[in-house]
Every structure is written in C-alpha cells, then in structure tokens.
Amino acid sequence: METDLVTNSRVGVLRRVRAATGRASDGVAARVGWDGIAREYRRRGTLEREGVLALLEDRLRDYDARVFRVVGEDVGQSVAERLVERGVRRMVVPVGLPAAWMSASAAVEYVVDEGLSSEELDGVDGVMTGATLAIAETGTFVLQGVAGQGRRAATLVPDYHLCVVRAEDVVETVPEAMGRLQGTAGLATTFVSGPSATADIEMTRIKGVHGPQFLDVLLIV
Amino acid sequence: MSGAGLDPKTAPTFPMAAKAMMGDVQLRKNVRHATDVIQEKRARVVSEMPDWQELREAGKQIRRHTMEHLDFYLEEFEANCTRAGGVVHWARDAEEARRIVIGLVKASGSDEVIKIKSMTTEEIQLNSALEAAGIHPYETDLAELIIQLGADRPSHIVVPALHKNREQIREIFQREMNLPELGGRPEDLADAARMFLREKFLRVKTAVSGANFLIAETGGVCVVESEGNGRMCLTLPETLITIAGIDKVLPRFQDLEVMLQLLPRSATGERMNPYNSIWTGVDGASAGDGLRDGARDGLRDGPRVFHVVLMDNARTEILADDEGRQTLNCIRCGACQNVCPVYRQTGGHAYGSVYAGPIGAILTPQLQEMHHAQSLPYASSLCGACYEVCPVKINIPEVLIHLRNKVVKQNTAGVAGLFDVEAGAMKAMALIFRSERRFRAAQRLGRIAERPLVRRDAQGEGWIGWLPGLLGGWTQARDLGEMPKETFRDWWERRGENGN
C-alpha cells in the first residue's frame, strides 16, 4: 500500500513534467543540448605562477585568514610557531597526514582521528589538514574525504584550523578547480573560504559562528 | 507577529499589508540599511569579474536546458543517488512532502531535528507540521534562529531576519535563551547562538536540510552556507533528510563552475561563501570493498541514513507555462529583492509569502495558482532593476506582465466579467483618451470634482486621502496627488509660438 503510494507519486510527478515539456526526454538529446550550452566565460586563468599565489594570499587575508609561505623542509617549524601563537595544546590530525608536518614539540599533543566522537572533537583546540586544491580568485581551499584531509567533522568542530596547501595545487579560477575535481566528484567535498562567518546581524561580518573561528593557511612553495 | 507561517491563502492582499508595513519606521530603516550594504558589496565583487555577462548567459542556458530535459535529469539523479546509498522519495505537493518527512523523522527514532535554513521547508510550512506531529525542529542558521525564537516570519530569501536590528535581536535572545546579562554587540549575539546550538548539534541525531543544487551526473547534493551550521547538520547526525524542489537539478558536476561563481557574488556579495558542502549518498556505501567497510565502521563521515525528497508542489504547472517557465531558473540568491524599490519600502512580510520581492511576486502566484496572490504581480514598478541583477537572467518584468494578463483574464472570465467594474472603467477611459475634446472635458470636470476632497500638507501640497464609492479602491492604500492647476497642454498653448 505504502509502496503503491510512493510509486504513484514518482509516476505522477514524471508524467506531469513530461506533459509540461511536451515529450519524454532521452539521454542523447540531453547530451547534445548540454554540449550546446554557450560557455564563453573564462575557463582558465591568465596570471603567472607568482601572481596566482599572491592572489590567493590576498583573498584569504581579505577573509580574515592568516597566510604563511614556507619551503618544504620548514613546514614542521612553521606549524610549531603557529600553534604557539594560537596557544594550541591538543591538535587533531587525520589519518595519513605527512609526519614531517607535525612538529616535534613537547607542548603540543597530536591526536590522530581514528573515529573520534563529536564530543571528543569538541574537546580539542584545533585541527591540521592538507587540501586537495586551492582557488586563488575566491580565496578557497577544497577538502575531500581522503588521507591527510580526513572526515568533515574534524575540520568543523574544533575552533582552529591549520590548513597546509601545496603551491602546485593552487589554481586561479573556479572552472580550473572543478576540472581537477571531476575525477573524484563522488567524494564528500567541502569548499572552505575563510573562517566560519555570519552577516545576519545588521550585515556586520562576524567571524566564527559554528565552525572554526580561526584559520591559518601554510602555503608550501 | 503571529508566529504562523506566511501563507498566501490567508495573508492580506499586498496593498493592504504594504500600507501597514509603511508605518513601521524601524523596519523600513533596517531593511534599507541591510539592502544598501549587500548591494554595495555585490556591485564591488561583480565588477571584479570581466566575464560576468558570459557567466550569466551560461547560467541562463544551463537552467533553461535543465528545464527542457527535467524528466531525464531527475531520473538520472535518482539512479545515481540511490546507487550511492541515498533513498529518493517523490512528493506531488506540500502535504505529501510533509507526510514523507514526518514519517522519516519518526522512523529515525528522534522527536527533535536540527534544521538548515531552507526556503523549501518554509514554503511547505514544515516546522508547524513537525510540531503538530510531536517533533521539535531547531533552526540552526542564525537568522532563522532569530525568527524562530522571536515567533517571527522570514522577510528575505538569503537574510531572513534583515528586518531586525541588533537591539531587537538582543531582546529576543535575552528572553528566549534566559540570558539577562547578554551584551548588544553582534559578536555577543553570535556567541550566544553558538553556545545555544552547540549542545543541539552534538545531541540531536536527525537533521533536515534543503538543497541549493542536485547534481544528476553524480547523484550529489550541494549546500551553500556561511556559518558552519549547515556542515554541522550535514555531518554530525545519523539521519539526514534533504528536501528539494524538482527545479534544483543541475545536469553535471561541471555546471557548478558557473553556479558557484554566480550564486555567492549575487546573494551575499562574496567571492565565495565560507562553506560549500557537496556529498553523495552515504559514506562508503558505493565502495563495497572490505577496506571501505572497515573504514565505515571506524571512521564515520556523515550520516548513515540519507533521504532526498523531490517535491513538485506546482512547479510542473509553472513548467507548462511557456512564458512563466523561466521563473524555475531561480537559484534563490535574493539579489532582486535588494535592488527592488518596492521591496525596500515595504520589507518582505507584505508579500504574504516566504518568497518576497520581485521573485516572490512572480513565484508565489504561480505556486498558488494565482487565486490567493492576485495582487502580487502588481507589487512592482516594472523598473527592470531585478532583471539587470538576476544572475541567471530571469526577465522578471516580462513575467510580471504575463501574470497581470492572467489576473485580468481570470477576473473577466465568465458572466461575472460582464459586470466587472474595473473592465468597465477601463473601457470608459479608452473612450476619453481617444478624443481630445473628451479628454479636456474630463480634466476640467476632475478639477471641479476633487475640490471638496483635497487636504493641504505643511508644504501647501494638495493630497487626496479618500475617494468616494468605487474610486475608493485607489486611495485605500495610497494618497492621490491634487490635479495641477494648469494642464501641460494649457501651459504649452499659453507659451505661444516663440516659446516665451
């Protein structure tokens, strides 16, 4: 009985859609139509490498994130400095985060997220991850459910996020980013642009509502 | 405010509601400030984009193409979402959608839900239906929380509480969160919301969301937000129920490259909003291998149960109307509201619907089959500003005129139409305008007839606030200016041949 109802609704809605468009669409026609969509907007950036990185830094800072450039072997050192500045004691890291990024410091305890509960995540000071890519034009980095980036909850519940981005993973425009993400489009994917924020009160931008309030980005050049 | 949802079936007509709102000086000030700020931000980030017009054109074509093949893309979305472990439901109308959601919440074993701001759930008045079924919904978007705790109603698609200022919000929070010492800075208010909701995020096991986009190619769903409350609802609970209009489909993942550029810049004047979440089904379900199964048990990332409710609720009727169809292209950015001179004066509540402003003036009458919202197509000056800012180029003025035609046809149809006073008056007007002699006579007559009705204000300007009989309809919601002492024609003739 319940199944009948469900089936009827599905059939009913699709029948009404087809009556409204005057036909049943098929995959071939849809593909041809989609290919015909005019895409005369910018599909790739125009800046030199340095220009792209500078743009990313500018856009991230505009959104209240701090950005630091580091060379590969200095990541651990830079991480240690950031954690001292932020007063972070317990740091969550995802499975698969490069060990070299975790500074050996007696003052910081790294907790590997092997399935922490939400309450446990709520009890740590911060989280450190890598990123799949970053978009310079919008000041965005993209996280996916893979090694080194981990679960979505881990980058959400703690109040501080330190994200390490490799320069070669920085693209200039959104279309370039979507092109790179196409192959892994089925993964849980989060675009992060600055710390959590709201403008619901008199359009005043306030940092840190429910997500991380503080965001640092290390750019490995 | 009553706290009841905005329902076009019971709301007063726009002119009546607007007249009342015009008297609320604080509300008008709040709306003016908020819309000024967003407009300025939007203009700045849009001007950064050399290809904005090309993006708008692509956005329009993607949306139009989707509507042409909507049945195909809905079925494709259903198949891919199901394959990834989601469960897809179909709802013909609001009643059915509410029943499905309530059933799913009960099946999840929870008597409370956390909610992401969603216009679709507002449209079907889901919250009151949940309450009636013994389920308590917690709104988690700051603005929606203000609305819910204040027993208020949303007045803007993107910033639902923009009609409230910080002092009004503080009073609501002090009272409802029992925080008598709460400070009045925006930071204090956001902190209070954070504290209030954190416990709910960690405790409540079922969430309800809307969707910005459904991606047919992958079966994925995209939600765009700023505060992180959306991510909390999408990732922490065990059950997630997403409800979306059938118009929310995008053909391919790549199409997000257009929408994610158009939407944030148009909606909040940001290059990108702080968080976009894209998820597909439930974690690990599509992998099927032993490793991922193990990972699923140990490292849960997101809900284990995921439902999508695809809702029609009169969208297919809009689809069937060739001229009205472009209304379905809307991506709910609210840019048209911010620029609309009518909305900026009246605020959102006057529209009697959750969809206010220009888009509401065309969407609501079509969702409601016109009967309950006949005055809305007239709630516009047809200035075209809404069309100019629309990121997917919906020609709102064109649809407004189309709907006005429908209203007139509806009212003059059948026997009743033969005695329609407005239609009769229009015929008489046409007769007058066709003859110069009759037109001049009417002007003279008007100046004589208005004399006893004119009242002068402090500046000596003459205004008519009340007209007798059938003409009274005009002055019910507006004042009428006094007719000029001298007509343009008289003035022109008096200037003589040489223009002196």
How would you concisely characterize the structure shown here?
The complex is a heterodimer of chains A (221) and B (500). Chain A is of the alpha/beta class and 221 residues long.
CATH structural class of chain A: Alpha Beta
Give the CATH architecture of chain A: 3-Layer(aba) Sandwich
Major sheet: arrangement of strands of chain B: 1-10-7-4-2-3
Oligomeric status: heterodimer
The backbone outline of chain B, from C-alpha atoms, is: globular
Radius of gyration of chain B: 26 Å
The residue fraction in helices of chain A comes out at 25-40%
Structural class of chain A: alpha/beta
Proportion in β-strands of chain A: 15-25%
* CATH topology category name of chain A: Rossmann fold
Protein name (chain A): L-lactate dehydrogenase complex protein LldG
Domain LUD (chain A): 118-220
InterPro entries (chain A): FTHF_cligase-like_sf, LUD_dom, NagB/RpiA_transferase-like
Pfam families (chain A): LUD_dom
